[in-house]
């Protein structure tokens, strides 16, 4: 879309329902600012494509699956290859439209199903990157003479790794959400879904150290993590802090909060945790989302199996005995 386009999203009759949907995601579903912005851009593109291909359409009630399919073909056949949609982007585009259609149906704004029989393309999911144990240990090193912010930052990183929190969930934690005695956190995630997750001994220890100096920032709120002015820490501030720490420690990979969440899932799988348990701890709505963490190599999974499954242990012993017997017979 260029400045020469006469199209105006605000003036389009298709835009008010989009604005209502985005507001619904913020207020009722508690979606992050980044997610809502992504949904907004996707739907603005959909509205623009409808305007370009079907200027006569004035209502979402008039949109049909044929229209949506033509939009997809249009996006696939762009002259500039760099602007063409990848399989992953196409799947996201359709996912957003499905969520939007579901919202419209629930509010009685459409009776048709403009997403009927439209399947998402198959694509190779991007495997999540994670930190090794050594890289994580470098990240949580405290300086020789720690300041209050060092203890705060250390506690944030510990929680992201030990509890698998999203950064938005971490900065939203209040003092009432933390049970240090039992090492548990009350977390409000996407869609205002609540869950309880353990934070481990290291997480408890890091929180206690931060609590000991937290009042030096003269808190103006009950959020666990605050800035030097006493206000809640922002997700952006955490992202900048973690990236900076990665650079300061000369880590060979770029570090961001979600990479710590990936590392949590990876270590849980390596330890033999059931994927359903990891799904609950991470607040995923479906095991399909959690399934992307099954990127451990066969050697790792075999090791977990051999170390934890009683039949595997028996099998190893029997295999060893059988091999010895065979060697004796050969001799």
Structural class: mainly alpha
- Helical content class: 40-55%
Q: Which CATH top level class of the largest domain fits?
A: Mainly Alpha
Which stretches of 5+ consecutive residues score pLDDT under 50?
1-6, 312-331
Radius of gyration: 25 Å
Total discrete domains: 3
Shape: elongated
The CATH architecture of the largest domain is Orthogonal Bundle
- The strands making up the biggest β-sheet line up spatially as 1-2-3
Q: Name the average pLDDT.
A: 81
At the fold tier of CATH, the topology name of the largest domain is hpI Integrase, Chain A
Quick synopsis:
The protein has 331 residues and is mostly helical.
Detail the topology: elements first, then pairings.
Elements: H1 15-27, H2 33-53, H3 65-76, H4 87-106, H5 133-139, H6 148-163, H7 167-172, E1 178-179, E2 184-188, E3 194-198, H8 200-214, H9 235-248, H10 257-270, H11 275-282, H12 287-290, H13 298-308, H14 310-330
Antiparallel strand pairs: 1-2, 2-3
Outline the structure in words:
This protein is mainly alpha-helical and 331 residues long. It folds into three domains: 15-106; 133-296, Intergrase catalytic core (hpI Integrase, Chain A, Orthogonal Bundle), CATH 1.10.443; 300-330, no CATH class. The chain is built from 14 helices and three strands. The protein has helices spanning 15-27, 33-53, 65-76, 87-106, 133-139, 148-163, 167-172, 200-214, 235-248, 257-270, 275-282, 287-290, 298-308, 310-330, and strands at residues 178-179, 184-188, 194-198. The chain has a three-stranded antiparallel β-sheet with strand order 1-2-3. Helix 13 packs across helix 14 (310-330). The model is unreliable at 1-6 and 312-331 (pLDDT under 50).
């Amino acid at each position: 879309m260029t400045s020469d386009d006469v199209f105006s999203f605000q003036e389009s009759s298709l835009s008010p329902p989009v604005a209502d949907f985005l507001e619904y995601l913020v207020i009722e579903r508690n979606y992050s600012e980044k997610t809502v912005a992504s949904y907004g851009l996707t739907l603005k593109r959909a509205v623009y494509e409808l305007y370009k291909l079907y200027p006569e359409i004035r209502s979402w009630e008039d949109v049909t699956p044929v229209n949506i399919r033509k939009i997809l073909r249009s996006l696939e056949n762009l002259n500039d290859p760099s602007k063409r949609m990848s399989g992953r982007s196409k799947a996201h585009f359709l996912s957003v439209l499905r969520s939007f259609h579901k919202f419209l149906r629930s509010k009685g704004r459409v009776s048709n199903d403009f997403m009927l029989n439209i399947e998402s393309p198959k694509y190779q999911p991007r495997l999540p990157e994670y930190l090794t144990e050594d890289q994580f240990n470098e990240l949580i090193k405290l300086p020789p003479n720690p300041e209050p912010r060092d203890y705060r930052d250390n506690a944030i990183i510990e929680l992201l790794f030990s509890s698998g929190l999203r950064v938005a969930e971490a900065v939203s934690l209040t003092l009432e959400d933390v049970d240090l005695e039992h090492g548990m956190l009350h977390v409000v995630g996407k869609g205002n879904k609540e869950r309880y997750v353990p934070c481990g001994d290291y997480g408890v220890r890091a929180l206690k150290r931060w609590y000991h100096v937290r009042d030096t920032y003269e808190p103006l709120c009950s959020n666990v993590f605050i800035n030097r002015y006493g206000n809640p820490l922002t997700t952006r501030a955490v992202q900048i802090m973690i990236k900076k720490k990665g650079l300061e420690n000369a880590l060979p990979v770029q570090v961001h909060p979600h990479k710590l969440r990936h590392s949590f899932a990876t270590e849980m799988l390596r330890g033999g945790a059931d994927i359903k348990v990891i799904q609950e701890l991470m607040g995923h709505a479906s095991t399909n989302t959690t399934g992307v963490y099954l990127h451990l190599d066969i050697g790792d999974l075999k090791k977990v199996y051999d170390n934890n499954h009683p039949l595997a242990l028996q099998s190893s012993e029997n295999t060893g005995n059988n091999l010895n017997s065979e060697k004796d017979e050969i001799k």
